[in-house]
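Re: the pair you flagged

First of the two:
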Amino acid sequence: SVLAGNGATTAPTVTTQPDGTVEISVTSQTAGTSVITASVNNSSQSRNVTFIADVSTAQIADLVVSQDNAVADGATANTLRVKVTDAFGNALAGQTVSVLAGNGATTAPTVTTQPDGTVEISVTSQTAGTSVITASVNNSSQSRNVTFIADVSTAQIADLIVSQDNTVADGATANTLQVRVTDAF
């Protein structure tokens, strides 16, 4: 009889050839070590076999915003965490993920996944508003929005325009001005 661990699949029993040997075939959709135990009568032996994740099916499994609403000062970052797996959900380490950032935001063009298949993406901007961040590997991509807020600590008067002048001094009719306040960027 044959037992396979860690989700591996094998025939439950095999029959030996005339020379006393038999080849045991084991498959799995789960990357990692599987313990294979062959038993006959009261005798058994176990060996480990290793299955590796299928890099040919690498895909963006998840893209999560972990820090949002950063100040648009060009230094404070919004962050996202991307996870890359194969078609069966096995984490893929060492995968190069391409990153695009919209609306003038800045990020590294590529990041590389860690042993758990994840990597953090850091994004900065000097432009307040929404930036679309897209992570891609192979033909798989996901996008998320992050928001940058104006840097109120650098608020300044950008424009002061007289929009209505020379009104009658009757205590009711007003001269008007329009002010535009911006941050340093």
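Second of the two:
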Amino acid sequence: AIEAQRTDRLPQVPAGARNVLEVKNLSIRFPGRFGSTAIVDNVSFTVREGETMGLVGESGCGKSITSLAVMGLLPKTAQVTGSIKFDGKELLDPATSHSSVKAYEGLRGEQIAMVYQDALSSLNPSMKIKDLMEQLIKRGGRKTPAELLE
């Protein structure tokens, strides 16, 4: 049975609320031995000021990859097309089809963040801890420990 959503329990979003996050026609592919594989295909959604959004779906349907794309944390091997805007600012670099490091400066961790379902999925299993930490520090606009020692 399908039930209607109860609107009396939801916080009211003011009429004319601005779009905070806009994802349009997002597609993500990864190269493989026999060509590239589509992981996310043509996903679009908008989150307005005052709204809360949850990404829900079956295991393996692309929720985490979509979230990593929004956060600008996909590996360089990802082939990304579409648009991701935060506060009207485009976060994808159309020339490279990757997140723009400049666009995320002062944004990630301060204005936009991702909350994982459990601690085991808090780290990207395909990356070494050292590489992950260096990437987070660099993308946060801070110097790495090695750079500080120079």
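The helical segments are 63-71, 101-104, 129-139, 145-149.

-B.
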